[in-house]
Design a protein that fits this description.
The structure holds two protein chains of two kinds. Chain A is an all-alpha fold. Helix content of chain A is about 75%, strand content about 0%. Chain A has eleven helices and no strands. Chain A is elongated. Chain B has one domain. The longest helix of chain B has 24 residues. Classes of the chains: A mainly alpha, B mainly alpha. At the A-B interface, helix 2 and helix 3 of A face helix 2 and helix 4 of B. Chain A: Keywords: Membrane, Transmembrane, Transmembrane helix.
Chain lengths: ~250, ~70
């Protein structure tokens, strides 16, 4: 437990020193600010652009369009940035050998994985919250209709998917070697998930659907009751992946 | 066009984020000459031409160890 606390502290300090916070803060501020604005201005932008005499008239945007942009940006750019920032979470320290000293001094290997996951989850939650709040404030300011059904559940799904991705990154880091092996494996696993998600029968059992159906949950096309099972399964899967990460990291040569 | 100007107070903070991020990345780039791959010119172009994602790529996979 002492090792865990010390390592959490080390991770928190490291986060502020290697530009990760700048990346995450600016990404989620950018997503939060630009999504509602883009939704609002898109009809204007189209009317300014002259596309060879072709005029595209879009219907008056609503708060739903703002959230459509937000979910699209969050699930693509947000998750990609999360992958890039955290892909080296384990491999960086393994290739540099900075972990070896700590481990030989008696730091437990479980503490390393758990502390890294705790800190990553904390940061993801924090910046996700910042982006979400800014997006919501902008949406309220720019649009008239601003109450949504199941907004919390929809946002929670996306957040949970992020938590799942973080566990996947850690797990991939324990079973691969080298700088980019972990990133590659995570991407491969996510792509498999994305492909599987195109089969509607499998969507229920696929964590990826938590990041793709957010707007449909708001519009009511996908019922919350259909996704409760997916949420439960993802929590279970995240825990399992972490347990495997702990196991493989114990076996790993450092 | 007038409507775009109306929303300028909301657009400026977004541009600020992009500029600050690019500036921080450029300052880091000028002070360090070790990259995991690529050369300085390539990273300068990426940082300046690819908004938001460019500097993020530099910090996450471009910059060498401090």
């Amino acid at each position: 437990m002492r090792g865990f606390k010390a390592f959490v502290k080390k991770e928190l300090i490291e986060f502020t020193r290697n530009y990760k916070w700048i990346i995450l803060l600016s990404t989620f501020l950018f997503i939060g600010m630009s999504s509602p604005l883009l939704a609002k201005l898109l009809p204007n932008i189209f009317s300014i652009l002259e596309m060879g005499g072709l005029t595209i008239t879009l219907p008056e945007p609503t708060g739903m369009d703002a959230y459509s942009q937000f979910f699209k940006n969050m699930s693509q750019m947000g998750i990609i940035v999360l992958l890039l920032v955290y892909s080296g979470i384990l491999s960086n320290e393994l290739t540099k050998g900075t972990l070896t000293i700590l481990l030989s001094k008696g730091l437990s290997r479980n503490a390393v994985i758990l502390a890294k996951y705790t800190v990553a989850l904390f940061h993801w939650s924090l910046f996700f919250l910042i982006g979400t709040i800014i997006n919501h404030v902008y949406t309220i300011y720019l649009f008239e209709k601003t109450s949504f059904d199941h907004l919390f559940f929809s946002l929670f799904s996306l957040w949970l998917f992020g938590a799942f991705v973080l566990a996947l990154i850690l797990f991939s880091g324990t079973v691969t070697t080298g700088n980019y092996g972990g990133l590659l494996l995570t991407v491969v696993l996510l792509v498999i998930g994305l492909i599987a998600n195109s089969f509607s029968a499998l969507q229920k059992y696929n964590p990826v659907s938590l990041a793709t159906d957010n707007l449909e949950i708001l519009t009511g096309e996908v019922l919350v009751s259909e996704r409760i099972g997916t949420v439960g399964l993802t929590v279970l899967l995240t825990t399992t992946i972490l347990v495997f990460a702990l196991y493989f990291f114990k076996e790993k040569k450092v | 066009m007038e409507e775009l100007i109306e929303y300028l107070p909301l657009i400026i903070p977004i541009l600020m984020i992009e500029l600050i991020l690019a500036a921080v990345a450029l300052i880091h780039l000028v002070r360090h000459d070790q990259y995991r791959f690529g050369n300085r010119l390539m990273w300068i172009l990426i940082i300046l031409l690819v908004q938001i994602i460019g500097p993020i790529l530099y910090f996450s996979i471009g910059k060498g160890d401090d």
